[in-house]
Every structure is written in C-alpha cells, then in structure tokens.
Design a protein that fits this description.
Order of helices and strands of chain A: HHHHEEHHHHHHH
Strand order of the largest sheet of chain A: 1-2
Largest sheet of chain B: 2 strands, antiparallel
Largest interface: A-B, 45 and 39 residues
Structural class of chain A: mainly alpha
Helix content of chain A: over 70%
Number of strands of chain A: 2
Radius of gyration of chain B: 22 Å
Number of helices of chain A: 11
Oligomer: heterodimer
Structural class of chain B: mainly alpha
Helix content of chain B: over 70%
Distance between the termini of chain B: 19 Å
Largest sheet of chain A: 2 strands, antiparallel
Strand order of the largest sheet of chain B: 1-2
Radius of gyration of chain A: 19 Å
Chain lengths: 287, 331
C-alpha cells in the first residue's frame, strides 16, 4: 500500500508542480496574481476531453494543441488587458491589486463559458486505463504517462529559463523591469510571453489531469488554491521552489487522503500559516 | 435665493437619505407580496459590499474571506437560535454572531495583516475552505450529524432587522471614513511605509478595521440564517458570498460610500432577475462587467456619477451667473 500512495503522491506532485510553476511565473515576472489560473486548467482539461470524444484526437496530441492555444490566449490577454492596466497604474502595488481584480473577473467569465459549453455532471474518459506493474507496484498506464510528461515538461521549462537567451531576458525582467528595459529587452513582450507561458503550463497540467481523473467545471478553484499553497511553500516567484513544493504537497496530500481526507485542506493551512509566520519567502525564496 | 443652496450637500444629502430610509421602512405596507424578501436579500448584499469596502477599499488589501465571516455568523445563529428552545432573543444572537466573526477576524488579521497585501489575499482566498472543512470534520466525526435547523422568523421582522443592520453599517462606514482611522487607512493604501513613518500603528489600524468589517458580515449571517430554515457547511460557507460583494463594490466604486450600495442594488437585482432564466449567463455578464470596469473605469459607477455631478454643478453655476448678468443688463 505504501509504495502505491507514494507513487500517487508523486503523480499529483507532478501536476501540482506544473500548476504552481505557471502561477509562480505569472506572478513572479508579470506581477499578476492570476486567480483565474485554475480556470485555465479546467478549460484545458475539458477541451482535451472534448477533442478526444468528438474527433478521437489522442490526449497526448492535444497536449500540444490545447497548451499552444491557451498560451496564445494568455499572450493576447496580457498584451491587451494587463498591459493597459500596467500603463494606467501609478505604482506597482496599484497594478498588483488592479490586475488581481481583472483576473478575478476572468475567473467568473471563464467559469461561466465552461458551464455553458459543458453543463452537467463531471466528465471522466478512460484513456490507456490498463494496469501494469512497475517495481512491484500496480499502477495504470495513463498515470505513468502523465507523470513522465509532467516531469519532462517541468525539466524542459527549467532549462528554458536557465539556459536560453529568452530565459535570461525573463529572469532579468523579473529581477528589475526598468533596468532590463534599459538593457534593450522588450519588456512588454517578455511580460506577455510569461503570462502566455503560465497559461500554457496550465494547459499541460489540465490535459494531464484529464487523462487520469474526472473533471468538473468547479475544479478550477481547488487548483488555484493548491497553486497558492504550493507557491507560498516554495517561495513566490521561484520556479525550482514551485517544483519542490508541488512534490512535497502532492505526497503529503496522498498520505492524508489515505488516512483522513477531510483534514487534508486544514493540514495544508497549518503548513501555510506556520510558513507565513516563520519564513514568508518560502523554502527556496530570496530575502 | 441661490440655486446652489439646494444642490449643496448640506441640505440635499441628509434630506434624500431620510427620504430613502422612510421609503424603505414603510416598504412592507405598500409593496406587492414577494418584494419584501427580495429587498431583504438586496439589503444583505448592501451590508456585505459596504463592509467589504470598509476595510479593503481604502487600504487596498483585497479580502476574499467575506463568506467565511458570513458563515461564522450563520453557524452562531444555528447554535443559539434553535427551533426547540430559543436560547436567546434574536437581536442578541445577531450581536453575538457579529462578535464571534470579529474575534475570528482578529486572529486571522494578527497572523496575516503584518505581511504584504498579496499574501493576505492569498490567505483569505482559502480561509473559507478551511472553515468549511473544519466544521464538516467536526460535524461528521464528533457530533455525527450533518447540517442543522434554525428557527424561523417572519418576513417583515427579518426585513426590519436587516434594515437596522444596514443603517448601522452605513453609519459606521461613514464615521470611520471621516475619522483619523479612515485617514490612516488611506495612508496605508497610498504608501504603507510612509504611513508607518508618520506614526501610524499600521497593523493595529488594519486589524481593528478588519474586525469591524467582519462584525457586520457575521451579524448579517446570523440574521439571514433565520430565513433559511436549514443550513449545512456547504450552504453556510458558499464562495459566492465572498465573490459577489467584491464584484458589487468594485463595479459600484470604492471611492465613495454610496458606490458599493449602488453596485449591490444593481447586481443583486440583476442576479434575482437572471438566476432562474439563465443561471450561467449572469455569471458571464458579471465577469464581463468586472473586467471592463477594472480596465476602463477604475473608480466604478460612483466615479461616473461624481463626474456627472461636477459637470452638472458647473452648468447650473453658469446658468445662475448668466441669469444674474442678464438682470444686470436689464436694470
């Protein structure tokens, strides 16, 4: 039983990590606390299932289509809505609260659209749902596939940020936007790209989630809540922190789910409060 | 006679306010049946939106925890105001509901209001979920029940009590706005470090106002529970009671006291009119309006009204001056 719980925990951890990395990127660089992040995940999950049911497109293929689509939507959202807010805000604190409110409006919008398109009960589609045994643990193939994709995407994303020129530009813009601009970085494009990348990561997480679990139009809120807790655990704006935090919470959540499911959320909250009081910058955050 | 005397705030505003209160107080006498419950609901949203604005408006600390305090009020009422034996009279229950919510707010505030606004928002987002799960756990594992029945009161009684709470909320919000506290909070919103250097004990100001705003949310919850007959954690701790007041306040405009009131009236009515015909389209409309207001009209509807009033003031002044000049020319 224990290896099984650990495996499920790592799987959940991988999904949480993707969710939190997108959320962290959107706040860390673009300074938008995207309360609608979970709704993007929900939207991606339903889109992937619809493509599978209607056209028979494999979720592995829609992983690319859906994320690309969401990424473009995110990019456009930032370059229209949030850029305008950024220009009209007197200070960065003012932008943080007004962008939060705009994201809150988006939460309502996206959820309403999803409820109109996909009304009714939660969806569940069986995809590659046959068991195999790895290291003596019996698991489902779709779970193994989802986990390996989650880790691969997270690693690819980390190396994109750490090694490429664009990644350097993103890190520079996160550090100090004004100076980055003086160095010849098109910060407007970088910020929009980050928001788009965050949305694309939500897309990956949503599609992988829909491969293994049932999805409902109200699942977005829980995802956002998880993202918030993971990001506070790992440090707001830190990408490795989001990954490690996601893994830790994934495993803890599965252990708690097995022993006392109702107490999982309160337990996270206790962690959350202790962290806020002891180390508000998170385990990987900078002072 | 000067036309400006009538348009000046000194006579006009108190006069209109008294008229509105009288009209609202006599409403059960002449309205159709069914209107009073609707108006009670609208007034409930007015309280939630105004008390949300009381704290979050000037300070800019966006709270998503209204529903948690509202739910605490509901549960307090369910514990104290039972069908079989009414332990306490209703006004006392309302008061206690508010006080319990305040205490809860003080604990939460002390833990989170020292930190930056963004952490506070993130924390408040999940507070509701925490309260709901804890009560669920308690009911399921310790008392072995789910949900409770609350004694009911008449439609008109509920309406009058709600109206009283509305008046109390608006008065408190007005007094806070005009006091040193209000000024200190605006300072926190504009620049927290600067306010601290000016000698404002920012944490104390924030925690106290947060507790006061929670008081009214809890009191409303305690009152509303008596109209709902049955409550359980999912009904009492509903996310909508966090989200809708915020939406109403922002769209109405947090800069003026009447902003959230207008927002609450408009949205509560819109929700009532649309929720049975098109339950999801109304969410779509709300979300759309929210985004449009945040981007294009940061002051909300109230800023439109203020702008209109200034223009109108200018026009009447010009007319008055023009008339005087004409008289001079005639003589």
């Amino acid at each position: 039983m224990v290896p099984k719980i650990i495996f499920e925990g790592i799987l959940w951890g991988g999904i949480y990590a993707l969710v939190a990395m997108g959320f962290s990127l959107q706040y860390g660089v673009a300074r938008v606390l995207n309360l609608a992040h979970g709704e993007f995940i929900m939207f991606a999950a339903f889109s992937s299932l619809s493509l599978y049911v209607l056209f028979g497109i494999s979720p592995l293929f829609s992983l690319v289509i859906v994320s690309l689509g969401l990424g473009i939507i995110g990019f456009l959202l930032h370059s229209t809505l949030f850029r305008r807010l950024l220009r009209s805000s007197p200070s960065s604190a003012a932008f943080e609260s007004s962008s939060l409110l705009a994201a809150f409006g988006l939460l309502f919008l996206i959820q309403a659209v999803a409820k109109i398109i996909w009304p009714g009960l939660p969806w569940r589609v069986t995809f590659l749902a046959y068991p195999i045994t790895i290291l003596g643990v019996q698991v489902l193939v779709n779970q193994v596939v989802a986990l390996s994709f989650a880790i691969a995407i997270a690693l690819a994303f980390y190396f994109f940020l750490a090694r490429t020129r664009m990644g350097k530009a993103i890190r520079a813009a996160a550090e100090d936007r004004a100076t980055a601009r003086f160095m010849g970085i098109n910060t407007n494009r970088v910020l929009a790209l980050c928001f788009g990348l965050g949305a694309a990561l939500a897309g990956f997480a949503g599609v992988l989630y829909s491969m293994c679990y049932s999805v409902s139009t109200t699942m977005g809120m829980d995802q956002t809540l998880m993202a918030i807790i993971v990001v506070v655990l790992g440090g707001l704006g830190s990408i490795p922190g989001a990954f490690i935090g996601g893994m830790i919470l994934g495993i803890i959540s599965q252990i708690l789910n097995w022993t006392e499911p109702v107490l999982a959320m309160p337990a996270f909250y206790v962690i959350f409060i202790i962290l806020l009081l002891v180390r508000p910058t998170g385990i990987m955050g900078k002072r | 006679m000067n036309i400006a005397t009538f348009t000046s705030k000194r006579f006009l505003v108190p006069g209109v306010l008294v008229l509105i209160v009288v009209l609202l107080a006599t409403a059960p006498l002449y309205t159709r049946p069914g209107t009073v419950p609707l108006m009670t609901t609208i007034l409930m949203y007015v309280i939630l939106a105004v008390s949300w604005t009381m704290f979050s408006g000037p300070t800019g600390y966006i709270s998503l925890a209204s529903a948690a305090f509202f739910g605490v009020g509901i549960y307090t009422s369910a514990l104290l105001f039972k069908q079989e034996a009414e332990l306490l009279p209703l006004p006392a229950v309302i008061l206690i509901g508010g006080l319990v919510a305040s205490c809860f707010a003080i604990i939460v505030g002390l833990a989170t209001l020292r930190l930056r606004g963004i952490y506070f928002t993130m924390f408040s987002f999940g507070l509701l979920e925490l309260a709901r799960r804890l009560i669920q756990y308690y009911e399921f594992n310790i008392t072995g029940t789910r949900g409770r029945y609350v004694a009911t009161i008449g439609v008109d009684t509920a309406y009058y009590l709600m109206l009283a709470v509305v008046v109390a909320t608006l008065l408190t919000a007005y007094l806070i706005m005009r006091s040193r506290y209000g000024l200190a909070m605006q300072g926190i919103g504009k620049g927290e470090e600067a306010a601290e250097h000016m000698g404002v004990n920012t944490t104390a100001v924030k925690v106290i106002t947060f507790a006061i705003s929670a008081f009214f949310m809890g009191a409303t919850g305690a009152l509303v529970a008596t109209r709902w007959l049955y409550i359980d954690p999912t009904i009492a701790f509903n996310l909508n009671y966090s989200f809708l007041p915020l939406l109403m306040a922002i769209v109405g405009g947090v800069g003026q006291l009447y902003g959230p009131v207008i927002g609450a009236f408009a949205f509560a009515y819109l929700r009532y009119a649309l929720v049975s015909i098109a339950p999801y389209y109304f969410m779509l409309i709300f979300g759309g309006i929210m985004v449009v207001v945040v981007v294009f009209l940061p002051g909300g509807l109230a800023s439109l009204i203020e702008r209109g009033r200034h223009r109108l003031g200018g026009v009447t002044a010009k007319l008055w001056k023009g008339g005087q000049a004409e008289q001079h020319a005639n003589t």
